[in-house]
Automatic annotation (TrEMBL):
The keyword Protease does not apply. SUPFAM superfamilies: FAD/NAD(P)-binding domain, Succinate dehydrogenase/fumarate reductase flavoprotein C-terminal domain, Succinate dehydrogenase/fumarate reductase flavoprotein, catalytic domain. Residues 496-608 form the Fumarate reductase/succinate dehydrogenase flavoprotein-like C-terminal domain. It comes from the Bacteria. This is Succinate dehydrogenase flavoprotein subunit. Keywords: FAD, Flavoprotein, Oxidoreductase. GO terms for molecular function: steroid dehydrogenase activity, acting on the CH-CH group of donors. The keyword Ligase does not apply. It comes from Paractinoplanes ferrugineus. Its cofactor is FAD. Pfam families: FAD_binding_2, Succ_DH_flav_C. NCBIfam families: PRK07803.1. Substrate binds at residues 258, 274, 397, 434.
Length: 642
């Protein structure tokens, strides 16, 4: 009996319904494209919803000295100069407009006394820059984008009699494969996207989307790690779909371990404690009661951070005349510091450190400014954060690496055409480390660009690409394989084994021997994952879903481990105990992953694009000397002399 496959035709298919996906879909619909939005989880449930702190945009409301150039500088510093400079530039320039635009869609950010959008402090940002709605900013962002989509659907209903005529949401639907043009290959052997194949999670029924343009907006990869702030959907699907379609991934060695995840009770280990806790005055102490971050200010940041508790405390009320508290160093620095305190025996019993707001501000202020944190700790750990400190430790949070894209159009690099990527699934924007708050603004800026350029691509296309029947059959066979396999390996055991390899051997601190060991174990796991089985049928079957996700987790983890072994330096979200410190030579290199014909990860060195003169001139020479090679500095001097 043949398996039924539901067929759909769209101009643009957006995979992912977080901020990047929704913003891309709005833009595609505004450009008149028939647009599908596909979401693995319920519509409205994505990491974007969980974002607490805010969206970084240099609006200059809290400090008029802020502008796109300062934001650009902070972003490049945070990423330790490995960022794609053009993405960082576009992001810094366009973020304020994207935030204001959200208010025209119905968002309402917290206000300053004089009625402007309020902006809060966050690690690595020179001025208060995060537009926020209490500690529920992501919720407001998603609510607003969804509301905009509904309003567009209402316009379409008025015109066509159908709400879904131009924009339709497929919730609880997982895409397992991208399909390429079966009839021709374009210039230089590149192949056009022709569709996407997947299944409804509830019924297990299959779907085929025929479309010339796909925007990937699938978010992160955290579920490959033991301790993570990421929820079940984040299995690196978009990264793996892109690789298998012929696109490339960059910066996969860079993972952000957020310094403050809950460490207790074990059932909630990894759940995020927002950085706003520190931005609003929370301090970190070890089990001796010592405010230890002062010991961990690296040389590159020494000029900007306070040396005494008194100066750090004064900064909250007088930022003009004092330097920032070291608790607000970029996340990689704070995470490593906590890791070290615990390792040296100054941690809490549960393996974390203390984060305290209770002694820093009145209970009413805590409840007003951090309502979700107050609720989270009360409900999950029975801790009242207005009276007691929280216990926190590093948790795998965000992947800086992702699909290599053209910065202006968000089009994927590699041998595939018609594929775009925005948000966490794309790489380059954040370099080796993302600043808090830069993700929400990244989603809006590059989500819009991806939707716009995907639409323009469709407009310019002569003949529509065609899906080959044999490719659909192959995708179907792969999807059904775990169900047809008798005595296959248990997907949950495999996921646990993978998480152990990644958490223990490719975690926050890395070493050559362990990385080599990790790669060996990943090869063994790959063989086992190829033999994964799932009992039961296709109707809501989480074991089967995980069996399919594992294929993606494996290939993405291989990219991370290979790149981590290759990069012999420490920078941002990649710390090599055997190569401490940054090496300017490595700053010139992006590690690019592709898949070869046998499905193995191939790693290539690619030079980083050179920063334009007017951008590099935004930094002073002393600062550049921390990052650039001698040759680059000589070039900079020549530029300055002109
Ligand atoms: C707890 C937490 C707090 C955070 N706080 C902040 C903050 O304050 N400020 C900030 O800037 N950033 C924050 N971040 C990071 C930020 O929220 C994320 O990086 C960002 O929301 C990612 O957005 P996105 O649109 O790229 O993807 P997401 O919002 O992660 O959405 C991904 C979408 O893709 C779908 N998907 C995945 N795979 C498939 C598939 N195979 N088929 C179909 N659909 C698929 C998912 O279901 C989901 O709809 C936080 C992250 C977490 C986890």
């Amino acid at each position: 009996m043949t398996t039924r496959i539901e067929r759909h035709h769209y101009d643009v298919v957006v995979i992912g319904a977080g901020g990047a996906g929704l913003r891309a879909a709005i833009e595609a619909r505004l450009a008149g494209k028939r647009t599908a939005i596909i979401s693995k989880s319920l519509f409205g449930k994505a990491h974007t919803v969980m974002a607490e702190g805010g969206a970084a945009a240099a609006m200059g409301n809290a400090n008029s000295k802020d502008n796109w150039m300062v934001h650009f500088r902070d972003t490049m510093r945070g990423g330790k100069f490995l960022n794609n400079f053009r993405m960082a530039e576009l992001h810094a320039k366009e973020a304020p407009e994207r935030i204001w635009e959200l208010e025209t869609y119905g968002a309402l950010f917290d206000r300053t006394k004089d009625g402007k959008i309020s902006q809060r402090n966050f690690g690595g940002h020179e001025y208060p820059r995060l537009a926020h709605v209490g500690d529920r900013t992501g919720l407001e962002l998603i609510r607003t984008l969804q509301q905009k989509i509904v309003s567009l659907q209402q316009e379409d209903f008025a015109e066509t009699g159908s709400y879904d005529s131009r924009i339709k949401v497929f919730a609880e639907t997982t895409i397992t494969e991208l399909l390429l043009d079966g009839s021709e290959s374009a210039d230089g052997g590149a192949v056009k996207v022709a569709g996407a194949f997947g299944y409804y999670r509830e019924t297990g029924e299959f779907l085929l989307f025929e479309t010339p343009a796909v925007v990937l907006a699938t978010g992160g990869v955290g579920r490959s790690y033991k301790v993570t702030s990421n929820s079940w959907e984040y299995t690196g699907d978009g990264h793996a779909l892109a690789l298998r379609a012929g696109a490339t991934l960059i910066n996969m060695e860079f993972l952000q371990f957020h310094p403050t995840g809950m460490v207790w009770p074990p059932s909630v280990k990894g759940i995020l404690v927002t950085e706003s806790v520190r931005g609003d005055g929370g301090v970190l102490r070890n089990s001796d009661g010592k405010r230890f971050m002062f010991e961990y200010v690296p040389d590159v940041f020494r000029k900007q951070y306070a040396e005494t508790e008194e100066e750090a405390d004064r900064w909250y009320t007088d930022p003009e005349n004092n330097r920032r508290p070291p608790e607000l160093l970029p996340r990689d620095e704070v995470a490593r510091a906590i890791n070290n305190e615990v390792k040296e025996g100054r941690g809490t019993q549960a393996g974390g450190v203390f984060l305290d707001v209770s002694t820093r501000m009145p209970a009413e202020t805590i409840i007003k400014r951090l309502p979700s944190m107050h609720h989270q700790f009360k409900e999950l750990a029975d801790v009242d954060i207005t009276k007691q400190p929280m216990e926190v430790g590093p948790t795998c949070h965000y992947v800086m690496g992702g699909v290599e894209v053209d910065p202006d159009s968000a089009a994927a690099a590699g041998s595939v055409i018609g594929l775009f990527a925005a948000g966490e699934v794309s790489g380059g924007m954040h370099g080796s480390n993302r600043l808090g708050g830069n993700s929400l603004s990244d989603l809006l800026v590059f989500g819009k660009r991806a939707g716009e350029h995907a639409s323009a691509y469709v407009d310019a296309l002569g003949k529509r690409p065609k899906v080959a029947t044999s490719d659909v059959e192959a995708a179907l066979e792969v999807a059904l394989a775990p169900l047809n396999r008798q005595g296959g390996e248990n997907p949950y055991t495999l996921q646990q084994d993978l998480q152990a390899v990644m958490g223990d051997l490719v975690g926050i601190i890395r070493r050559e021997g362990e990385l080599t060991d990790a790669l060996k174990r990943l090869q063994e796991l790959k063989v086992r994952v190829a033999n994964v089985g799932a009992a039961g049928g296709r109707q809501y079957n989480p074991g089967w879903h995980l069996a399919l996700d594992l294929r993606n987790m494996m290939v993405v983890s291989e990219c991370t481990a290979k790149a981590a072994l290759e990069r012999e330096e420490s920078r941002g979200g990649h710390t090599r105990e055997d190569f401490p410190g940054m090496n300017p030579k490595w700053r010139q290199v992006n590690l690019v992953c592709s898949l070869d014909k046998s499905g193995d990860v191939h790693l290539e060195h690619k030079p980083l694009p050179k920063m334009r003169g007017e951008l590099i001139n935004l930094f002073d020479r002393t600062e550049l000397a921390k990052y650039l090679t001698e040759d680059e500095l000589t070039e900079f001097d020549a530029l300055e002399a002109k």
